[in-house]
Structure formats: C-alpha cells, structure tokens
Amino acid sequence: MNLLFSIDDHYFQQIKTTLWSIKQNSAPQQQYDVYVLQHPALSSNQELDQFCRQLQMRYFPIVIEDAQLFAQAPTSKRYPLTIYYRLLAHNYLPTNIQRILYLDADILCINDFSQFYQLDFQNNLYAAAIHSGLTDLTSVFNKVRLDTYESEGYYNSGVLLMNLAAIRQTVTSQDIFQTINNLGKFFLLPDQDILNYLYGKQILTVPDELYNYDTRKKLIYETTSGGQYNLPWVIQHTVFLHYCGKDKPWQHTYKSNFRELYLHYQHQAQQITP
Predict the structure, then answer these.
(1) Does the keyword Transferase apply (predicted)?
(2) pLDDT by position in tens, the chain (length 274)
(3) Residue 33 φ then ψ, to 5°
(4) Count of other CB atoms within 10 angstroms of residue 66
(5) Cα end-to-end span (Å), the chain
C-alpha cells in the first residue's frame, strides 16, 4: 500500500505516531511505501527513514524544489505551504503508482484499512468523507461560499484516497493556481476549499464515522446515530480517528476526546529505536 503525507519538521513526532498506529492495526505481511512531500527537506529525514525501516516500511522523501510553488497561496501558522502539496502530488509521485492514501499527521489508525484502500473509485478522482453534524448549516454555508451546490457536501481532505490514474488526466496546476488567484482571499480552509471547489463533484463519499471520525464530535456521532456510534462501536469499527482543529492530543492543554488512546500510541512509537 502507498501512503502519502505532507509535513514540515514540526510534525516529525506526530507522523511517527500515525505510522506506528497503522503498523499495529495491519496484517503482519502488509507492506507499505511511505511518501512524504516536503519543502525544504526535513532535518529529520534520516531518522524518519530509520523509523520506517524498523516498521518494515519503505520511506521515500519527496522534496519540492520549486520554492515559488504556491507562493501566492494564503498561508498562516496553522496552514503552512505544505498543506497545498497534496493537490499536485501526482506530479511528483512515481508514474507507476495508480492509487495512494493521503493522511494528515494528526490521525490515528485504530483498525485495519485494507478494505478502504481497495475501494472502487467508480470513476471518481478521490474518496473522502464529509463531516456531518446535527444540522446541515455548515454544508450549506460552504456550498454558498464556494458555489458548489452540486456537490454532496464539504469534504474533509485529511483522509484522501487518490485515484492517481484519473487525477493525472484531470487535475492541473493551471486550474489550481487560477482558483487561488480568483478566490484565495475568501478561503477559510485553503487546500480543502480548492479541492471542494474544483473537484467536489468527482469525490466518492465514504462514511466519516468509519474513515474520518472527527474526535471533537463524539457526542454528535452518538446523538445522530441514536446511540449506535458509542465508544465500544468506535473501538471496534472506526478506522481513522482524526484530531481535527487547533487543539491536539499531544498538547498539555488538550481537553477533548480520545486523548488517552493517542498518548498510548505516541508512547509506543517513542520506544522504537534504530
């Protein structure tokens, strides 16, 4: 299986936790190739390579050499340039790769995802989840803001299964840069807004309670499911926990859900030594 990340040095420890959680919840014989988009090159590349070797994964750093790439795109402390790189990942990945799973580095894998990885794209470019809530107000707001009325909703790009064969024929840097020039000042979640605006109608919807569980919304999941998606159900069925938002479970100030589970995997990952 091919895994894709896009990080800077600030997320070195977090990507190790994500990778360890994947390894712990995979079949022993499952092999992984890990690609990490980066600019500049991570100072921890050698250590990350050694960590992947310990997990019997192959590590492939992909350094974006063009310093002007996305130079006009809006950024902030929370949204650095690296968030955009996934949009053009197909330009930098080996051409023989037909599909790859992009993951944010604030994600835990708590069950096997091989079935999800082999999903039939049904001629779509991507497979992703929509974070639903008690109302559809957020979805309506985003559809108005981005003029994406024909899309099913607003997709979260933190877990993004990519149909690279189709993406190479459809997704262009020209379209992406033009969108940034035209709409960049209106972006709230920059890379995610671009994805939804340009390609929202070509994304296969997958259930977020399984493949992109927003840990902030534990009570909402339980309420809207009539109690079905409770903690035992999540532990048994959910594949990816996504620690969305500003507050993160590795921070001492984090007060939200599933912190203990994250710290458990983080502790185990820290015990891996070359």
Answers:
(1) yes
(2) 999 999 999 999 999 999 999 999 999 999 999 999 998 999 999 999 999 999 999 999 999 987 677 766 666 666 667 778 899 999 999 999 999 999 999 999 999 999 999 999 999 999 999 987 644 445 544 454 455 445 568 999 999 999 999 999 999 989 988 888 887 677 787 789 899 999 999 999 999 999 999 999 999 999 999 999 999 999 999 999 999 999 999 999 999 999 999 999 999 999 987 6
(3) -110, 125
(4) 8
(5) 23
Instruction: Tally helices (H) and strands (E) across the chain.
Output: 11, 10
Structure tokens at 227: 């109690």
| Torsion region of 6: left, alpha or beta (phi above 0 gives left; psi -120 to 50 gives alpha) | beta
CB burial class (10 A; 0-12, 13-18, 19+) of residue 260? exposed
Contacts of 268 (CB under 8 A, 6+ apart): 20, 24
CA distance 257 to 121: 32
**Domain count across the chain:** 1
Query: Which residue range(s) make up the domain with 171?
Result: 2-270
Global pTM value: 0.91
DSSP states of 36-82: EEESS--TTHHHHHHHHHHTTEEEEEEE---TTTTTTS---SSS-GG
CB of 165 closer than 8 Å to CB of 98: yes
Angle ∠(191,258,231) on CA atoms, nearest 5 = 110
Convert 84-108 to b/e letters by CB count within 10 Å (16 or more is b). bbbbbbbeebeeebebbbbbbbbbb
From the number of C-beta atoms within 10 Å of its C-beta (0-12, 13-18, 19+), residue 14 rates as: buried
